[in-house]
C-alpha cells in the first residue's frame, strides 16, 4: 500500500503527472510548429523530426530526443516524487506522446476534479491558495507603477526621437510585397489536430476550483525542483534546478487551467521563500522526529532544498528590495495556517522567513549553503577571457532582484550612442522577471552606431531618402543586384567599423554562452532578448550552446529584433533546439540601414532583420508599421515586447495596445 504523501489522492497525482507530461510534449512540438499554427502555414520544411513528435504508436517514446522519454530526466523524477506507481510510468509517457492531445487533457482534468470528501484536503488547499495570493500581492505592491515606468520611458523616447529619428520615405505596396515573403504567423489559423490549437483554457478547467488548480501547480513545481533522480538511471539532463523545459510546460499547463501567469509566479516565489525559511530554521533532528503522517512534508523539505540549490548568485529569496516587506507581511499573517503545510518548517519557520525578509545576511547564508556560482550575474566581468573582447559585464536592472524570482531575463542592446543606451531601452519593462542587461564593447558599438548615424544625416543620404532610393537598396539586396555607386561609397565608409563590431558581437555571444553554461544565473530558466547587434550576440550565444548542450535546459524564450544575421548561412534549426519555448524574429521591411551596413556578406543570403526567416518553430513578426528606421529599436523595443505578450505560450502580436 502506497503511503499518502500528498494533499492529492493517488488518482489526482496520476492525472497531474500526465498533464505535465502532455504539456512537455506539446512544448517540444512548438520547437518546430508554434502552438496553434498548422505546419501548412509555415514556409519551411516540416521534416521527419516533426512527424515523430506527433505520431501515435508504441515507437514514439523510443526516441531518446523526446522530452517525455525516460532518459530525458524530466518526467521520471516527477513520477518518483509524487509516488506514481512505476507500472504506470510507461503508460503516461505513451499518452503524452500520442495525438491528438486535447481529449486526454479534458479527461485528466475531470480526474483532478474528483474529491475524496476530506475537509482537511479543502482546508489545506485553501491555505495554499492564500499563501500564493500573498505572494502575488507582494509582487504587485513591490513593483514600480506601470504609469511611472511609461512616463519615464516616454521621456527617453522623446529624447531619442529628437536626436536620431530620420525622415523615412514611405514604401509602396509593391515594395512591401517584394520584401515580406509571408504574413505574421499569429494570423494563421488553419486546423492542426496534433496540438491544442489556441491560447484559451481547456473547457473542463471550469470543473476545478481555483484552490485545486493552485495545489496541483504547486505540487508539480515542487516535484520538478526536487531532483529525485536515481544514479543508476541514464539521463541526458545535465543540471539540477529549474529546467527551462519544465518552466515552459508549467506555463502551458497554467494556460489550460485558466490560471494567470502572475499567480504561478506567486507559487514560484513561495517556493523560493520556503527555501530561505527552511535554511534558517532547518534542523536535521526536526526532520527525523516527523511522524509518519508527515511523510509528504518530509519529502517537501527535500524538494524545496532542491529549489534552494538553484539560487545562484544574487537570487536569494525575499532579501532586500521593495517587495520584501510586503512578502514578509504576507508570510507572517499566514504563518499559523501554513506552518503545517508548506513545507515542513512549522509556524516558527515562517516567522523566521518573515523576520529575515529584507535582510542581506539571510540571503548570503542561503547562497553559501547551496553552492551559489560565485557572485552570480550581477557584476560578473568576463572581459579578457576571449580574444580581443575588452568589455563584457552584466548590470542588474529593475526592482525584482533578491525577491525570490525563479526566472531570469538577459537583455542585450546593440545599436547605441552612449553608455546609458545599454540600459534605458529596458527600464520601462513591466515583467516580473529578474532582469539584467549586458554592457559589452561599448567603445566599438558606439563607434559603429555613430558612423552609421553620421552618414544617415549627410546631405547625400537625405537626398536618397527623399527619392525613396533606399527601398530599391533593399530589393537589390534580396535579389543580389548591383547597387548605386553612392550607396556603395556609404557602405565602404561603414564597413571597417561594422566588421569589427560583427566580430566582437560573435565573441560576446560565446561569453554569454559561457556564463549560462557555468550557471551564473543560478540554473533558472532564462529569457534572452536583443536588438540590432545585441540580437546577433544572443544568436551566437545559442550557436555556442549547440556545441556542448544536448537540449534546451537553460534558455526558455528568445526574441531577436532587427537582427543582422544571415538566414541561409546559419544553422537556425540547430539553434532553435536550444530554446524550450517561444523563439521570435522581429523584422522591419523598411530597415534599409541594416541592409546597407550588412550588405557585404549577405547578398542573396537573406537577412533576418528585414524579412521572415521562415524556419519551422520560429515566429516571424513584421513591425514595419512601428519602426521608422534601425535606430527606432532604441525606443520601440519595449512597446514591441509588450505586444508580443511573452507570458503567453501561444504566438501573439497585438496590432494595438
From TrEMBL:
Keywords: Membrane, Transmembrane, Transmembrane helix. It is a multi-pass membrane protein. Pfam families: DUF726. It is found in: Membrane. Gene3D superfamilies: alpha/beta hydrolase (3.40.50.1820). Residues 42-53 have a biased composition (Basic and acidic residues). GO terms for cellular component: membrane. Residues 33-57 are annotated as: Disordered. InterPro entries: AB_hydrolase_fold, DUF726. The chain crosses the membrane at residues 304-324, 331-354, 360-380, 469-491. Belongs to the TMCO4 family. This is Transmembrane and coiled-coil domain-containing protein 4. It comes from Brassica campestris (Field mustard). The lineage of its organism: Eukaryota, Viridiplantae, Streptophyta, Embryophyta, Tracheophyta.
Amino acid at each position: 500500500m502506497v503511503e499518502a504523501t500528498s494533499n492529492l489522492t493517488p488518482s489526482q497525482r496520476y492525472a497531474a503527472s500526465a498533464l505535465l507530461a502532455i504539456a512537455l510534449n506539446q512544448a517540444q512540438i512548438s520547437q518546430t510548429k508554434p502552438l496553434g499554427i498548422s505546419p501548412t502555414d509555415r514556409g519551411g520544411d516540416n521534416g521527419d523530426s516533426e512527424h515523430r513528435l506527433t505520431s501515435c504508436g508504441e515507437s514514439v517514446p523510443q526516441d531518446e530526443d523526446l522530452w517525455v522519454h525516460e532518459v530525458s530526466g524530466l518526467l521520471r523524477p516527477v513520477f518518483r516524487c509524487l509516488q506514481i506507481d512505476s507500472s504506470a510510468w510507461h503508460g503516461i509517457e505513451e499518452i503524452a506522446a500520442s495525438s491528438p492531445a486535447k481529449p486526454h487533457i479534458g479527461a485528466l482534468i475531470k480526474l483532478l476534479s474528483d474529491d475524496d470528501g476530506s475537509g482537511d484536503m479543502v482546508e489545506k488547499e485553501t491555505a495554499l491558495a492564500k499563501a500564493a495570493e500573498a505572494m502575488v500581492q507582494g509582487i504587485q505592491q513591490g513593483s514600480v507603477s506601470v504609469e511611472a515606468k511609461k512616463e519615464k520611458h516616454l521621456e527617453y523616447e522623446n529624447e531619442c526621437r529628437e536626436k536620431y529619428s530620420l525622415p523615412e520615405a514611405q514604401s509602396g505596396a509593391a515594395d512591401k510585397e517584394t520584401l515580406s515573403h509571408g504574413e505574421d504567423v499569429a494570423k494563421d489559423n488553419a486546423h492542426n489536430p496534433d496540438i491544442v490549437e489556441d491560447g484559451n483554457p481547456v473547457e473542463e478547467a471550469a470543473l476545478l476550483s481555483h484552490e485545486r488548480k493552485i495545489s496541483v501547480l504547486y505540487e508539480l513545481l515542487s516535484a520538478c525542483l526536487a531532483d529525485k533522480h536515481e544514479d543508476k538511471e541514464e539521463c541526458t539532463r545535465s543540471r539540477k534546478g529549474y529546467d527551462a523545459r519544465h518552466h515552459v510546460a508549467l506555463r502551458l499547463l497554467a494556460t489550460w487551467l485558466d490560471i494567470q501567469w502572475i499567480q504561478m509566479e506567486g507559487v514560484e516565489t513561495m517556493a523560493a521563500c520556503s527555501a530561505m525559511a527552511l535554511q534558517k530554521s532547518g534542523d536535521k533532528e526536526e526532520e527525523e522526529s516527523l511522524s509518519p503522517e508527515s511523510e509528504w512534508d518530509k519529502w517537501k523539505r527535500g524538494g524545496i532544498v532542491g529549489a534552494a540549490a538553484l539560487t545562484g548568485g544574487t537570487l536569494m529569496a525575499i532579501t532586500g528590495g521593495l517587495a520584501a516587506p510586503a512578502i514578509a507581511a504576507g508570510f507572517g499573517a499566514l504563518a499559523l495556517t501554513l506552518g503545517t503545510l508548506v513545507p515542513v518548517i512549522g509556524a516558527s519557520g515562517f516567522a523566521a522567513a518573515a523576520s529575515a525578509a529584507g535582510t542581506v545576511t539571510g540571503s548570503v547564508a542561503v547562497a553559501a549553503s547551496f553552492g551559489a556560482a560565485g557572485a552570480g550575474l550581477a557584476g560578473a566581468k568576463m572581459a579578457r577571457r576571449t580574444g580581443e573582447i575588452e568589455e563584457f559585464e552584466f548590470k542588474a536592472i529593475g526592482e525584482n532582484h533578491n525577491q525570490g524570482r525563479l526566472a531570469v531575463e538577459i537583455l542585450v542592446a546593440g545599436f547605441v550612442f552612449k553608455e546609458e543606451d545599454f540600459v534605458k531601452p529596458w527600464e520601462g519593462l513591466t515583467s516580473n522577471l529578474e532582469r539584467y542587461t549586458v554592457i559589452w564593447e561599448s567603445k566599438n558599438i558606439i563607434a559603429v552606431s555613430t558612423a552609421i548615424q553620421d552618414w544617415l544625416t549627410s546631405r547625400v543620404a537625405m537626398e536618397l531618402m527623399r527619392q525613396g532610393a533606399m527601398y530599391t537598396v533593399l530589393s537589390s539586396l534580396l535579389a543580389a543586384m548591383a547597387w548605386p555607386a553612392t550607396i556603395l561609397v556609404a557602405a565602404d565608409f561603414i564597413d571597417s567599423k561594422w566588421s569589427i563590431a560583427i566580430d566582437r558581437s560573435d565573441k560576446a555571444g560565446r561569453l554569454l554562452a559561457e556564463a549560462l553554461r557555468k550557471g551564473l544565473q543560478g540554473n533558472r530558466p532564462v529569457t534572452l532578448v536583443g536588438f540590432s547587434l545585441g540580437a546577433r550576440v544572443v544568436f551566437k550565444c545559442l550557436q555556442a550552446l549547440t556545441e556542448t548542450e544536448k537540449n534546451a535546459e537553460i534558455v526558455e524564450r528568445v526574441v531577436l529584433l532587427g537582427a543582422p544575421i544571415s538566414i541561409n548561412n546559419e544553422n537556425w534549426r540547430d539553434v532553435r533546439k536550444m530554446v524550450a519555448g517561444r523563439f521570435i524574429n522581429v523584422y522591419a521591411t523598411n530597415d534599409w540601414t541594416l541592409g546597407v551596413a550588412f550588405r557585404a556578406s549577405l547578398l542573396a543570403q537573406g537577412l533576418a532583420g528585414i524579412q521572415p526567416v521562415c524556419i519551422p518553430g520560429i515566429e516571424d513578426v513584421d513591425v514595419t508599421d512601428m519602426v521608422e528606421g534601425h535606430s527606432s529599436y532604441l525606443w520601440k523595443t519595449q512597446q514591441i515586447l509588450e505586444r508580443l505578450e511573452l507570458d503567453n505560450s501561444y504566438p501573439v502580436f497585438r496590432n494595438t495596445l
